[in-house]
């Protein structure tokens, strides 16, 4: 089909994420993706500053990942995981257990489902049904996951009346990673006391504490001091409560450490991973837990149809091999330095509330919600693809981006901020 026909059918039948059927925000036809660029039908090659929703950390159309898919599909594309197993799944589980120190791996098919599984694990383990988290968080779009997203400022406030009621501490202070230089301010003692008071007051009813380690993603791209995560780990231990780390956005190097928990030097009882797990090729996620949790909760009442999908497991294994081989830590540090320098001019732009950077994440926060169509038009004019939301113009680029490509992204973001 030509682009006009694709767009006609899109308008007639397709419902895009986080939008009304007739949102007025244009969509663009993609014909292929290669390296760190996506190529539109009109021939424009746009630098993928989103790593396709934070997943394509190695870039697109990578020969190693392509080969893993081709070789696996010659054997099998899918078999049920109930009563059967296969090499790609067990190799991936072994790899994830070794990376995290969490010995049991439940393979899910999306990040939201991984969070649902984590919640079920905690409830079955403890016999309690209340969770604690902090405001400003985001954990997915399914019902259990929505219930631990921010009930007021989050994108799921429309459903508050039908969701379980959990315990919310205030959002952590977000002065970590702020321009003009990345600083590590002293943790706020008053906030540490507030966390302590919240847990102590409700500990008897808590099944688990669930948080995104160090970076709150789609809830607002806020960064917080690792000391708050360490305190939550200590409080969970003191009161016999599980700690769930939602590493779906932060895992596999995005923040400058392999996992967000590494900034705090802690290990959770349960961890959720996804997004970059397959390098952006196939949907796959996992919920990992300690042997202690697995042994106590017994039969876990969950089983996705595509659990342990061989294609997804094979490409995930290849992606983790590639991550282990590439100098990702140096790449992310170089991206961080480029973002810090390149976004500096936006700090004092009218309408800009804050600029912050951590690892391969760069954020310009504005005073008011941005005009998505206008911002996208500006950044596409600079040869870059970004997807702003709310009051955020942000990037989470592939690790494969060269310094000059990070410069392109920051110039596009700064131009967009200047045009507010």
UniProtKB/TrEMBL annotation:
<keyword id="KW-0045">Antibiotic biosynthesis</keyword>
<feature type="binding site">
    <location>
        <begin position="304"/>
        <end position="305"/>
    </location>
    <ligand>
        <name>pyridoxal 5'-phosphate</name>
    </ligand>
</feature>
<dbReference type="GO" id="GO:0004015">
    <property type="term" value="F:adenosylmethionine-8-amino-7-oxononanoate transaminase activity"/>
</dbReference>
<feature type="modified residue" description="N6-(pyridoxal phosphate)lysine">
    <location>
        <position position="275"/>
    </location>
</feature>
<feature type="binding site">
    <location>
        <position position="387"/>
    </location>
    <ligand>
        <name>substrate</name>
    </ligand>
</feature>
<feature type="binding site">
    <location>
        <position position="53"/>
    </location>
    <ligand>
        <name>substrate</name>
    </ligand>
</feature>
<dbReference type="InterPro" id="IPR015421">
    <property type="entry name" value="PyrdxlP-dep_Trfase_major"/>
</dbReference>
<dbReference type="Pfam" id="PF00202">
    <property type="entry name" value="Aminotran_3"/>
</dbReference>
<dbReference type="GO" id="GO:0009102">
    <property type="term" value="P:biotin biosynthetic process"/>
</dbReference>
<keyword id="KW-0963">Cytoplasm</keyword>
<dbReference type="GO" id="GO:0005737">
    <property type="term" value="C:cytoplasm"/>
</dbReference>
<keyword id="KW-0093">Biotin biosynthesis</keyword>
<keyword id="KW-0032">Aminotransferase</keyword>
<dbReference type="InterPro" id="IPR049704">
    <property type="entry name" value="Aminotrans_3_PPA_site"/>
</dbReference>
<protein>
    <recommendedName>
        <fullName>Adenosylmethionine-8-amino-7-oxononanoate aminotransferase</fullName>
        <ecNumber>2.6.1.62</ecNumber>
    </recommendedName>
</protein>
<dbReference type="InterPro" id="IPR005814">
    <property type="entry name" value="Aminotrans_3"/>
</dbReference>
<comment type="similarity">
    <text>Belongs to the class-III pyridoxal-phosphate-dependent aminotransferase family. BioA subfamily.</text>
</comment>
<feature type="binding site">
    <location>
        <position position="303"/>
    </location>
    <ligand>
        <name>substrate</name>
    </ligand>
</feature>
<feature type="site" description="Participates in the substrate recognition with KAPA and in a stacking interaction with the adenine ring of SAM">
    <location>
        <position position="18"/>
    </location>
</feature>
<dbReference type="InterPro" id="IPR015424">
    <property type="entry name" value="PyrdxlP-dep_Trfase"/>
</dbReference>
<dbReference type="GO" id="GO:0030170">
    <property type="term" value="F:pyridoxal phosphate binding"/>
</dbReference>
<feature type="binding site">
    <location>
        <begin position="111"/>
        <end position="112"/>
    </location>
    <ligand>
        <name>pyridoxal 5'-phosphate</name>
    </ligand>
</feature>
<keyword id="KW-0808">Transferase</keyword>
<keyword id="KW-0663">Pyridoxal phosphate</keyword>
<dbReference type="GO" id="GO:0017000">
    <property type="term" value="P:antibiotic biosynthetic process"/>
</dbReference>
<comment type="subunit">
    <text>Homodimer.</text>
</comment>
<feature type="binding site">
    <location>
        <position position="246"/>
    </location>
    <ligand>
        <name>pyridoxal 5'-phosphate</name>
    </ligand>
</feature>
<comment type="pathway">
    <text>Cofactor biosynthesis; biotin biosynthesis; 7,8-diaminononanoate from 8-amino-7-oxononanoate (SAM route): step 1/1.</text>
</comment>
<feature type="binding site">
    <location>
        <position position="275"/>
    </location>
    <ligand>
        <name>substrate</name>
    </ligand>
</feature>
<keyword id="KW-0949">S-adenosyl-L-methionine</keyword>
<feature type="binding site">
    <location>
        <position position="138"/>
    </location>
    <ligand>
        <name>substrate</name>
    </ligand>
</feature>
<dbReference type="InterPro" id="IPR015422">
    <property type="entry name" value="PyrdxlP-dep_Trfase_small"/>
</dbReference>
<comment type="function">
    <text>Catalyzes the transfer of the alpha-amino group from S-adenosyl-L-methionine (SAM) to 7-keto-8-aminopelargonic acid (KAPA) to form 7,8-diaminopelargonic acid (DAPA). It is the only aminotransferase known to utilize SAM as an amino donor.</text>
</comment>
<dbReference type="InterPro" id="IPR005815">
    <property type="entry name" value="BioA"/>
</dbReference>
């Amino acid at each position: 089909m030509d682009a006009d026909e694709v767009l006609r059918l899109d308008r007639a039948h397709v419902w895009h994420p986080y939008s009304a059927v007739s949102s007025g925000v244009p969509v663009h036809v993609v014909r292929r993706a290669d390296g760190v660029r996506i190529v539109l039908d009109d021939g424009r090659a746009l630098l993928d500053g989103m790593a396709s929703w934070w997943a394509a950390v190695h870039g697109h159309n990578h020969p190693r990942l392509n080969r893993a898919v081709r070789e696996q599909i010659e054997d099998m594309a899918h078999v049920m995981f109930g009563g059967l197993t296969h090499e790609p799944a067990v190799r991936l589980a072994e790899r994830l257990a070794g990376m995290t120190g969490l010995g049991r791996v439940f393979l899910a098919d999306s990040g939201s489902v991984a969070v649902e599984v984590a919640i079920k694990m905690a409830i079955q383990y403890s016999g309690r049904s209340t969770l604690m988290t902090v405001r400003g968080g985001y954990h997915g779009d399914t019902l259990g996951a929505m219930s631990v997203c921010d009930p007021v400022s989050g994108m799921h406030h429309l459903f508050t009346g039908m969701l379980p009621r959990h315990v919310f501490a205030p959002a952590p202070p977000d002065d970590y990673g702020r321009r003009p230089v990345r600083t590590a301010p002293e943790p706020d003692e008053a906030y540490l006391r507030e966390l302590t008071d919240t847990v102590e007051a409700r500990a008897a009813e808590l099944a688990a504490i669930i948080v995104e380690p160090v970076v709150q993603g789609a809830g607002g791209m806020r960064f917080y001091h690792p000391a708050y995560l360490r305190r939550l780990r200590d409080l969970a231990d003191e009161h016999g409560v599980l700690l769930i780390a939602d590493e779906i956005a932060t895992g596999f190097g995005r923040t400058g450490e392999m996992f967000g928990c590494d900034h705090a030097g802690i290990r959770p009882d349960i961890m959720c991973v996804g997004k970059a797990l397959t390098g952006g090729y196939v949907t796959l996620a996992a919920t990992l837990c300690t042997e202690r949790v697995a042994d106590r909760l017994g039969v876990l009442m969950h089983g996705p149809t595509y659990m342990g999908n061989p294609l997804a497991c094979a490409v995930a294994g290849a992606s983790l091999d590639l991550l282990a081989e590439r100098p990702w830590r140096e790449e992310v540090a170089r991206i961080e330095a480029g973002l810090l320098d390149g976004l500096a001019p936006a700090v004092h732009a009218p309408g800009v509330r804050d600029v912050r950077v951590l690892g391969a994440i760069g954020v310009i926060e504005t005073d008011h919600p941005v005009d998505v169509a206008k911002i996208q038009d500006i950044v596409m004019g600079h040869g870059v693809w970004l997807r702003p939301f709310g009051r955020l113009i942000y990037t989470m680029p592939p690790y494969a981006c060269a310094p000059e490509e990070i410069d392109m992204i920051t110039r596009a973001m700064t131009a967009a901020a200047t045009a507010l």
